[in-house]
Amino acid sequence: MHHEGRISALGGPFIELATAASTNKTAAELLGLSKLRHGAVILAHEQTEGRGQRGRTWTSVPGLDLTLSIVVAPPRLRADAQFVLSKLAALAVYDTVRAHIPGDVRIKWPNDVLVERRKVAGILIQNDLAGDRVAWSIIGIGINVNSSVFDESLAATSLALEAGGHADLQVVLDDLLARFKLYWDDWCGAGNAWEATYSERLWSRGRWADMFLDGEPVLARPMDVDPLGRLVVELEDGRVGAYGLDRLRFAAR
Ligand code: BTN
């Protein structure tokens, strides 16, 4: 580890690892040893067991892509409102990606960032609860920056593929952390303008999408994400409901 004295944009230690199984895992281990402060950032140049949502793996190319975890201690966040962290992270990733790509960037619920139909970044959040509060949150972010070869089944893309040319990892990283800090500070200061921004950036918002509700194929029109992190959709019969990932998901891309 080379972290002597390096401080992240969020005011915590910046820990840079040549390799890690998963930066989320490293963060969890260090948190378990009470070795992290709010605002710590753990970055690995290579992840050997990168994790995605729903037990999937997250693949990135050493030296070409960004894999990091931001560790925060949210002030007074109820466990049932924890999806706000996902919104703040997704907005920061959205802005970072958007700064490089002129095209159509969207946030796909619950927290993928897509360019048109292709995934450019993913977020995996692990929260540590203390009673009904979130004590610590590990916000894992993977951005495909300079990778250019993806299995077609992944429907993935990268900043370099979309923008042409090579993106500087350090610039993307600094940008991401600075943007996350803006959203974080705003939220801590009880600002809420980002709520509407998040809604506007939702993938398929206002458009009919193939989804599965309780395992049945349905057409649904995403409208918003509620404070519990459920996607609010209109169904074909006009009903409007809010459903969690346990009941609703997008059909395969
Ligand atoms: C997903 O889209 O399924 C989430 C992907 C999250 C990947 C990041 S990379 C840094 C952090 N460490 C991990 O093992 N996963 C997250």
Walk me through what this model shows.
The structure is a single chain. This protein is α+β, with helices and mostly antiparallel strands. The chain has two domains: 14-200, BirA Bifunctional Protein, domain 2 (2-Layer Sandwich); 209-250, SH3 type barrels. The protein contains five helices and twelve strands. The radius of gyration is 18 Å and the shape is globular. Biotin is lined by residues 22-24, 47, 50-53, 56, 58, 67-69, 112, 122-124, 140-142.
Please tally the helical runs, counting DSSP H or I stretches of 4 or more residues. Answer: 5
Average pLDDT number: 95
Structural class: alpha+beta
Name the CATH class of the largest domain.
Alpha Beta
Termini separation (Å)?
38 Å
User: What percentage of the residues does DSSP assign to strands (E)?
Assistant: 25-35%
Silhouette: globular
Largest sheet: 7 strands, mixed
Which compounds are bound in this model? biotin
Domain unit count? 2
Outline the low-pLDDT stretches: none
CATH topology of the largest domain: BirA Bifunctional Protein, domain 2
Whole-number radius of gyration? 18 Å
CATH architecture of the largest domain: 2-Layer Sandwich
Quick summary:
This protein is an alpha+beta fold. The chain is 24% helix and 32% strand. The radius of gyration is 18 Å and the shape is globular.
List keywords for this structure.
alpha+beta, SH3 type barrels, 7-stranded mixed beta sheet, globular, 253 residues, 12 strands, single chain, binds biotin
Write the SSE topology:
Blueprint lengths: L13 E7 L2 H10 L7 E8 L18 E7 L10 H18 L4 E4 L3 E4 L2 E13 L2 E11 L15 H5 L5 H20 L4 H8 L8 E5 L2 E10 L5 E5 L4 E4 L4 E3 L3
Parallel strand pairs: 1-2
Antiparallel strand pairs: 2-3, 3-7, 4-5, 5-6, 6-7, 8-9, 8-12, 9-10, 10-11
Helix pairs in contact: 2-4, 2-5
The chain binds biotin.
